[in-house]
């Protein structure tokens, strides 16, 4: 339906006339579009840098614990149950530009002047990604933890007898054993970060100077703020085409992993 | 306190932990985890504590982590000032409706796909899987148009809870979760019930549902948590002040209220999920792995 309607000139929400690819041409020729696509890719890259290996590492560390293991699980999973929008607003307050924000407060304690956080064009995206990671990391961590517990303990025993050090054991046993899950979660993360909408909406409303606006947010703005539904659906479909590649790949990998289990 | 010899999982073995080198490693990992746990809690606690400060105290330099005094009556004042009873009721309405819809339809759908298997089940399964993986973005505008002018009947569902409830009912992930659980119930149970003269509906209600209790609990918990956190659709659909849930309310509040009131409002919005988490922590921590990878 979205694809069908995106070929029409819409007034409000009623289709007026068939205009072919004009909506797409309008969207793609917009000077902002390349920048916004680049922003979205930046989000994905930063989220991979900051948030992809973190859950693996934390899961491995928790798996090693004897003391307080459930306690750690409980504490670290805590952010995941908070409402997403509350988390975004909370981090908005943490990054608050003057003395009111937590980060600036901490800076003051060690004697540094307060900084501008989300107002800084360069750092806004990584800072948003940190808040996303804070909320999203625990869920993946739990999945990794479950798959870590499925690793056959005898493999480690054999490795110890062969005299493999800890790093070598991680590299040759742990990582290969969970690599399937890691690949799945990698694609899942790319898919979900590509659609990021809430965080820039709540924390920066796309600013400063459109530095944090994403494709989804652009589609939302076109559709529900400017009421230009045609372009909104065109953007949605462009996003869809990009993501369908990842999705097919996800299914392919998922089948592979299932076969191996 | 547990001892190292109980350790039977993981990369470091219990024998190695007798050496000092590995003990140091173990305890440094322990410290790092304590640190991460603190980071997980710190923002919420900071927001709570700052909420008790007054407006001047928040901006004071040098600022402190703890407020001068914790006045519990301030909670009540802010609650009344921002009219949180109303938004709690609104959110509860959404949550309860969501819960009913997202238990009924996915459970029935899962049962049909798993046990009754009408013709075309395979096709439906493939369609469901693909729909689940489609980005939500592509659906937003067309769905909104449908709700704006509902087909056949031609009336608008905007500003009611029906769209939210219906979308909760159309939860593919839960359907597949139910399906895979029903798959594990042997068919002989159903045959036995049929021989005893049970209708399909009765078999479902009397035999299948009691068996599916663990799944129902997990689905309910996640449904409640999701509806409490749902944001985008309520924002689009609900316009009347009386109807909007807490998430939309706190989003619209930005820059309108004093910072300390705002912080307490954030705390109010996260209290119910935290309570649910405290009560059902075992199910939540175990349930993710139950359906986790397929998510």
Name a few traits of the molecule.
heterodimer, A: 261 residues, mainly alpha, MetI-like fold, two-stranded antiparallel sheet, B: 295 residues, 71% helix, flat, disordered C terminus
Verbal overview:
The complex is a heterodimer of chains A (261) and B (295). With 261 residues, chain A is mainly alpha-helical. Chain A has 13 helices and two strands. Chain A has one domain: MetI-like (MetI-like fold). Chain A has helices spanning 2-5, 22-29, 32-51, 53-64, 69-81, 84-94, 102-109, 124-149, 153-161, 166-194, 198-203, 215-225, 229-260, and strands spanning 8-11, 14-18. Chain A has a two-stranded antiparallel sheet. In chain A, β1 (8-11) and β2 (14-18) form a beta hairpin. With 295 residues, chain B is mainly alpha-helical. Chain B has two domains: 4-71, no CATH class; 78-291, MetI-like fold. Chain B contains 15 helices and no strands. Chain B has helices spanning 20-52, 55-59, 73-81, 84-116, 121-133, 137-148, 162-169, 172-183, 187-195, 200-211, 213-229, 232-237, 246-253, 259-279, 281-291. The longest helix of chain B has 33 residues, at 20-52. Chain B is flat. The model of chain B is unreliable at 289-295 (pLDDT under 50). Chains A and B meet through α4, α5, α6, α7 and α8 of A and α1, α5, α6, α11 and α13 of B.
